[in-house]
Amino acid sequence: STKPGRTILASSVSNTYADEITSKVESLRKERPNGPLLVGFLANNDPAAEMYANWTSKTCESMGFRYELRRVEEKDFLEEAIIEANRDNAVDGIMVYFPVFGNAQDQYLQQVVSREKDVEGLNHVYYQNMYHNIRYLDDEQQLKSILPCTPLAVVKIMEYLKIYNSLLPQGNRLYGKKCVVVNRSEIVGRPLSALLANDGAIVYSVDINNIQKFTRGEGLKFQKHQVEDLGPFSNEMLKECCADADVIITGVPSESYKFPTEYIKEGAVCINFSSHKNFDESVKSKASLYVPSTGKVTISMLLRNMLRLVENRQKMNLL
Ligand code: NAD
Asked: Which of 19, 113, 121, 229 could form an SS bridge with 148, CB 3.0 to 4.6 Å?
């Protein structure tokens, strides 16, 4: 059968970052002869987290990093374990596999990870900078702020797919693009919608409850995105948002959820970051480019964030 478009695998995108990452690791040989050390904390029995940890470990080792998985059997000891890694100068990056408690305590634990070692970019300061479209941590613009790695991975995928128009000024490269993001979690969907809107897109942010519109206003007059409530979720409204959407991004954590193919505009780009396949096979009859998963790019961004953190610590004379 002839399909009009193409399926693009995450590995094609992550491969384009391999050289940049390995050569940076190489340049750190003096400080870190055995490679920078990433520590992952696993305190749940989630097989998806276990798989992700496995992948992270393999990718790390193939690119000259060291990876250490620390299993914490008793959830209540996790905080102490993180604090110990914060203090340990041999540790360059820390990540925690969430959910741990599955409630607000997880947000607290996110903030326990030292900002200087937070490879996932979940620290409040990083989030606030991202939402406010601020790229540096300092007035001298020496220390780059970190972006949360899954939203960043989706942005990098969109750059690879040439949805970002490099002829436009930096910061406006999504001007005129319409995107739908089905997920508004604090970890992925909301920051992703903000990033895309900050870059000039009109973003329809969809969750179970309602649909919101993120934009920088008419003529991109605002410096950062604004949010408007469009109303409670309905299939009619979702369909309307999709009618002229150039990009549809899904992240619904459910096996049974399938995005309605009939809502996709012919030639739209479809990207799924959920660990479940949110599009069924028929997406290929509509999408120009279809990216079925993003995990490999997320790991590349994790390692890239880690190198940025090491650079920041060097500049602050903390290494
Ligand atoms: P979450 O449960 O915190 O958020 C789910 C979001 O989807 C919520 O905003 C919810 O309202 C929305 N949603 C659920 N069902 C919906 C529906 N039928 N219609 C519209 N919106 C709906 O989950 P999360 O942490 O954001 O993770 C989501 C998925 O992404 C999971 O499968 C997770 O494994 C995956 N994930 C992937 C990566 C990666 O790198 N690829 C990283 C993090 C998470």
From this structure: 121
Cα(158) to centroid(ligand 1), Å:
19
The domains found in the chain, sorted by start residue, are: 17-118+297-315 (3.40.50.10860), 151-287 (3.40.50.720)
Q: How are beta strands 37-42 and 289-291 bridged, if at all?
A: unpaired
State if residue 273 touches ligand 1 by the CB under 6 angstroms criterion: yes
Residues 6+ apart with CB under 8 A from 2: none
pLDDT in tens, the chain (319 residues): 578 999 999 999 999 999 999 999 999 998 899 999 999 999 999 888 898 899 999 999 999 999 999 999 999 999 999 999 999 999 999 999 999 999 999 999 999 999 999 999 999 999 999 999 899 999 999 999 999 999 999 999 999 999 999 999 999 999 999 999 999 999 999 999 999 999 999 999 999 999 999 999 999 999 999 999 999 999 999 999 999 999 999 999 999 999 999 999 999 999 999 999 999 999 999 999 999 999 999 999 999 999 999 999 999 988 8
Token couple for 147: 């972006």
The single-letter DSSP state of residue 263 is: G
Query: Which residue puts its alpha carbon closest to atom 42 of ligand 1?
Result: 150
Rounded Cα distance, 4 and 281, in Å: 13
